[in-house]
Amino acid sequence: GAGVSQSPSNKVTEKGKDVELRCDPISGHTALYWYRQRLGQGLEFLIYFQGNSAPDKSGLPSDRFSAERTGESVSTLTIQRTQQEDSAVYLCASSLGGTTYEQYFGPGTRLTVT
Amino acid sequence: QKEVEQNSGPLSVPEGAIASLNCTYSDRVSQSFFWYRQYSGKSPELIMSIYSNGDKEDGRFTAQLNKASQYVSLLIRDSQPSDSATYLCAVSGTYKYIFGTGTRLKVLA
Asked: Which residues make Cβ contacts (< 8 Å) with residue B51, sequence separation at least 6?
């Protein structure tokens, strides 16, 4: 079946502009995660959605970052007034939910802020 | 102390050898453990999950979990150059997954 998809695959933006990144999870997956991975670094948790519960936003680095999810489908991550330090690969993952289900990652969006 | 620790490597092994990748974690209530492979420029790909103490085998891969020692490992038998990648250990106690920074494996032909 279809895996997690993300768009765009690459985004180059000027400092100060807003960007919106999209994630389509695997059908039937109730849990959705966003991560950031800077070049040569590990995965940094950003936000978690589980069904209709309130999301865990504890990993969002600043109030310039926000994310939404409509039900158990598409999610968008928005970065306002982008800064050069926002340059990274943004990864989305989905899982069936709970703690014993594996996460499956999308291909990521490579964001470059010039 | 990092929550999930891995040796960054690189770990170099000759083709055909066994590669042993190790991971320690600090949260004793962790319940679920995962190994991911990440090729350069690509996203992480799930290799194995393990939830109970002991060994779990899948093809050339064996995951080993020791909750008392808070230790999880991944063995890759008959290593191939195509196994050259960064291997990420992930641990979950609740819904949040904590990833290690990964071990870079180089399999030498």
From this structure: A100, B31, B32, B33, B65
- What is the distance between the alpha carbons of residues B5 and B8, in angstroms, rounded to a whole number? 9
Cβ distance B99 to A50 less than 8 Å, yes or no, reads no
CA distance A18 to A85: 14
Interface test with A, best of B4, B23, B35, B97 (most A CBs within 10 A): B97
CA-closest candidate to residue B75, choices B109, B105, B108, B45: B105
Segments in chain B below pLDDT 50: none
pLDDT at B106: 97
DSSP conformation class of B82: G
A11-52 tens-digit pLDDT: 999 999 999 999 999 998 999 999 999 988 889 999 999 988
The confidence score (pLDDT) of residue B28 equals 84
Q: Chain B interface, mutation test: which of A43, A60, A92, A96, most B Cβ atoms within 10 Å? A: A43
Write b or e for each residue in B60-69: b if 16 or more Cβ atoms lie within 10 A of its Cβ, otherwise e. Answer: ebbbbbeeee
Residue B36 vs residue A53, higher pLDDT:
B36
